[in-house]
């Protein structure tokens, strides 16, 4: 994942929004499913722990432009809704 993160960081001027992507099937856990397709600014605390976030996790993320978000009808989410007070996934 480090290579993906490095590439995403290189393009933050044009793609500052990162979308959480999971493989949405019977094996997907509730933790990942509720993050699926959510978009967070690259500086959001949720990205302090990049996918995969647990054993067997098949999640990843992709970088988006603001125009790309608008074209897909996506809105910005807050990582605070998905993290405990001490920063652990909830």
Model description:
By secondary structure, the protein is α+β, with helices and mostly antiparallel strands. It has one domain (2-82). It is built from 3 helices and 3 strands, in the order αβαββα. Strands 2-1-3 form a 3-stranded antiparallel beta sheet. The longest helix is centred in the N-terminal third of the chain and has 9 residues, at 2-10. The mean pLDDT is 91.
Give the helix/strand layout.
Layout: H1 2-10, E1 17-21, H2 30-33, E2 39-41, E3 60-64, H3 66-71
Antiparallel strand pairs: 1-2, 1-3
User: N-to-C terminal Cα separation, in Å?
Assistant: 22 Å
Gross morphology: globular
Low-confidence runs (pLDDT<50, min 5 residues)? Answer: none
Alpha-carbon Rg, integer: 13 Å
Class per helix and strand makeup: alpha+beta
Summed up, the helix count is 3
Strand order of the largest sheet: 2-1-3
Estimated share of beta-strand residues = 5-15%
- Taken together, the total number of domains comes to 1
Please give the number of β-strands.
Answer: 3
Biggest sheet, open or closed, and with what strands and sense? 3 strands, antiparallel
Quote the average pLDDT.
Answer: 91
Give the fraction of residues assigned to helices. Answer: 10-25%
Q: List SSEs in N-to-C order.
A: HEHEEH
């Amino acid at each position: 994942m480090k290579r993906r993160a490095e590439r995403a960081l290189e393009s933050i001027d044009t793609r500052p929004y990162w979308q959480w992507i999971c493989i949405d099937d019977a094996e997907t856990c509730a933790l990942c499913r509720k993050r699926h397709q959510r978009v967070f600014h690259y500086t959001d605390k949720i990205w302090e722990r990049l996918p995969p976030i647990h054993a067997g996790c098949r999640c990843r993320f992709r970088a988006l432009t603001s125009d790309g978000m608008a074209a897909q009808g996506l809105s910005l989410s807050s990582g605070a809704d998905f993290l405990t007070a001490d920063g652990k996934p909830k």
